[in-house]
């Protein structure tokens, strides 16, 4: 291996892990060492194991050992290392000491840096004083006067991690995939769902095949759901979901359930300028168009004649299952026509000849 320079990044393999040290393969007689705490969680569990490939930065020789790090922090934050971190886009760790004019004073090792308000936090901003006293990761955005003029950004770290996450999701998700997610928030127009750290939108129209008036009536924050991806726009970071796609389509059986001529008494669900919608069953409406109404002109204000919740007798005229439409005619008009037709049928001879005589009918009544 060629002589490494401080700050140089390499990809290597973990050859051993102890309680406090990770040993790295350098293809030389000696091995590199890395502090195991850099890969440990809050419970002290190390997330890498023998054989794993990792990317690290060369810090320098300490006690005859070649030391490496995944980010520059206090013990290795010499001016030379910070300059290399700036040139090679290496993340650095620092403590937010206090608020100053326009931002925060950050201490990286023994070096002080400035982080503007606009560069602290990513997406979910907190109150300005909430960052003070915290140990965070930054990118150096300005290195001048041998490190005496140092500017850093915590937001850049969040943006870089977010872009990596998006790229991973792009390769993993596609339209038509069934996903599992958790409801994060409710809005009038739908709900935001967390799918692998990404916020996707579940529109109110896609929650159920039955009508949903209020999102909070059927969903709650923290609820786990299954849905199908119906739209993806990665350029604008938008993904749309549908729960109703996982439900059977009730319209597949509407033609058999409501054949032409079916008489129904349903409740008016909505009154429009062009007609009245009547609920035939939960979530299924038929339309009684104004042109089918007796003694009603197209210019008539239907809202003066009908109101939501009223019961209305109707007859199914036809079902368009593919278009999710059912056309209706007035039930009373249909019944009158049927009664008249039956009466005339009763006046015919066995050979079908019409023998109806109005004068004879009057004499029969006497």
Describe this structure in words.
This protein is of the alpha+beta class. The chain folds into 4 domains: about 10-70, Beta Barrel (OB fold (Dihydrolipoamide Acetyltransferase, E2P)), CATH 2.40.50; about 80-160, OB fold (Dihydrolipoamide Acetyltransferase, E2P) (Beta Barrel); about 175-245, Beta Barrel (OB fold (Dihydrolipoamide Acetyltransferase, E2P)), CATH 2.40.50.140; about 250-335, OB fold (Dihydrolipoamide Acetyltransferase, E2P) (Beta Barrel). It is about 15% helix and about 40% strand. The chain contains 5 helices and 20 strands. The protein has helices at about 80-90, 155-170, 255, 330-345, 360-365, and strands at about 10-15, 20-25, 30-35, 55-60, 65-70, 90-100, 105-110, 110-115, 135-145, 150-155, 180-185, 190-195, 200-205, 225-235, 240, 265-270, 275-280, 285-290, 310-320, 325-330. The strands form 4 sheets. Strands 1-2-3-5-4 form a 5-stranded mixed barrel. Strands 8-7-6-9-10 form a 5-stranded antiparallel β-sheet. It has a 5-stranded antiparallel β-sheet with strand order 13-12-11-14-15, with no helix packed on it. A hairpin with a 2-residue loop joins strand 12 and strand 13. The N and C termini lie far apart (about 125 Å). Residues about 360-365 have low confidence and may be disordered.
């Amino acid at each position: 291996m060629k002589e490494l320079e401080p700050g140089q990044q390499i990809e290597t393999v973990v050859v051993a892990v102890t309680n406090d040290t990770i040993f790295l393969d350098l293809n030389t007689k000696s091995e590199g060492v890395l502090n195991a705490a850099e890969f440990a969680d809050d419970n002290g569990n190390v997330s890498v194991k023998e054989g794993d490939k990792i990317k690290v930065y060369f810090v320098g020789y300490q006690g005859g050992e070649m030391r490496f790090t995944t980010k520059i922090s206090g013990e290795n934050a010499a001016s030379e290392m910070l300059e290399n971190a700036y040139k090679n886009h290496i993340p650095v760790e620092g403590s937010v000491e206090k608020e100053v004019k326009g931002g925060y004073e950050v201490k990286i090792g023994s070096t002080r840096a400035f982080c503007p308000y606009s560069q602290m936090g990513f997406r979910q901003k907190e109150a300005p004083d909430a960052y003070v006293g915290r140990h965070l990761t930054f990118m150096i955005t300005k290195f001048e006067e041998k490190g005496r003029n140092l500017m850093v950004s915590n937001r850049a770290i969040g943006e870089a991690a977010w872009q990596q996450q998006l790229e991973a999701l792009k390769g993993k998700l596609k339209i038509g995939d069934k996903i599992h997610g958790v409801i994060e928030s409710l809005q009038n127009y739908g709900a935001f769902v967390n799918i692998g750290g990404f916020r996707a939108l579940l529109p109110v129209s896609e929650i159920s095949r039955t009508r949903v008036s209020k999102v909070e009536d059927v969903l709650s924050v923290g609820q786990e759901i299954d849905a199908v991806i119906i739209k993806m726009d990665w350029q604008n970071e938008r993904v749309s979901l549908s729960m109703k796609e996982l439900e059977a389509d009730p319209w597949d059986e509407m033609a058999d359930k409501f054949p032409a001529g079916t008489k129904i008494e349903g409740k008016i669900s909505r009154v429009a300028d062009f007609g009245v919608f009547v609920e035939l069953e939960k979530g299924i409406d038929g339309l009684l168009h104004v042109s089918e109404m007796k003694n009603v002109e197209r210019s008539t204000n239907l809202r003066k004649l009908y109101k939501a919740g009223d019961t209305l007798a109707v007859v199914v005229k036809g079902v368009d299952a593919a278009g999710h439409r059912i056309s209706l005619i007035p039930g009373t008009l249909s019944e009158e026509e049927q009664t008249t037709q039956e009466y005339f049928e009763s006046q015919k001879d066995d050979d079908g000849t019409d023998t109806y005589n109005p004068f004879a009918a009057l004499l029969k009544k006497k």
